[in-house]
């Protein structure tokens, strides 16, 4: 349960300004932390920082490794500051798009820099911190680095299409490949260590300014991941280790055919037999990395939509019971205080609400959902909020507030909004009204996506559910950062006692 009143901004690391093609843990991240502190914000919420892949359109919610870091977010400037790169190594910098990420181009440039940094590291004879990092993370790092190396060695093939001895993790075959791919494995381990150090540095800096991180855990993992390769027994797979059923959600407001995510579904009976050890380790990882952790699609622990693997849409799925309260009882034995935020959007059943109440998990309220019907009864309308919840103007899956008002809201919805506010407002001001509603709410935490802080339209949208094109690429330009309404945001935080 959250007991301190505060507010913050949702801004993923990839969306930060950077002259190197993608936002990273460098100077812009520290400047954004300063901005949050100066405007009285307590929280910086981010999306998952696990690796992404082009096969999954670089979605951070379908990662090839739920314990690893996205090394594309390593800051080149920070590598210079620790002596692993020279300033001259950064040039020439290609011309990158200013307001979106070209992942292939950014990866090509950064990997050249990482090769140089790794070569310098090896020439120097290594570092005691690297040895300590490998020891402290041996439960996941070795398999993660081997998986990355094998993906490169096999030309990017899915692990299910590797030679049978590697696919089935035969010890002798794995040992041979560890010897053959030693340098690739060490390079990946080195980059994971560098990310961990840069992340820890940013967290310390932010904590000194009383800015806390809200992280994000996707409930599911990608099929082509080290998690499934290493732990096939905790997923519903056939004899050939192919999914028999996959995850998704039924038809909803985002898609009339539902959303077919395609992630393998957990075998919760098998996980229970293993005392939920894999999930305990995953939560422990989040506790180490973040101050609070949002669990995406929280409903999946209570019941989840399971779709036969051969289906082309999610329409013909069915609900299956999840582990429910028993699972969280197990977590509570390991973590007396579970710093979890439940993404409980959609149908909030009595079973879901029972778990939220029993464990004190704050759920979510989204202001954009309050005006599609009657605000009088909507749990998303400010007058119906509760203290133990997180209120958002919108999430990374929604339209921006300005985009909703300009493109999607009909006359009836606008009239509902105007009636609720007690006055008509022009579209150019709508985002400010939503930010004010969020911060004035009784909800103990209010989070505003950075796009809504600036009043941006749908061109700045981060994700469009049920689509794969042009998602996860939006970036904030340095010029736009200079226009941030700092004084106004600070005043709101003070007026509504969120400082």
From TrEMBL:
Reaction(s) catalysed (UniProt annotation): Transfers a segment of a (1->4)-alpha-D-glucan to a new position in an acceptor, which may be glucose or a (1->4)-alpha-D-glucan
EC number: 2.4.1.25
GO biological-process terms attached to the record: carbohydrate metabolic process
MF GO annotations: 4-alpha-glucanotransferase activity
One Pfam family of this chain: Glyco_hydro_77
Family annotation (Gene3D superfamilies): Glycosidases (3.20.20.80)
SUPFAM superfamilies (UniProt xref): (Trans)glycosidases
Keywords: Carbohydrate metabolism, Glycosyltransferase, Transferase
Family, per entry: Belongs to the disproportionating enzyme family.
PANTHER family according to UniProt: 4-ALPHA-GLUCANOTRANSFERASE DPE1, CHLOROPLASTIC/AMYLOPLASTIC (PTHR32438), 4-ALPHA-GLUCANOTRANSFERASE DPE1, CHLOROPLASTIC_AMYLOPLASTIC (PTHR32438:SF5)
Protein name as catalogued: 4-alpha-glucanotransferase
Protein species of origin: Methanoculleus taiwanensis
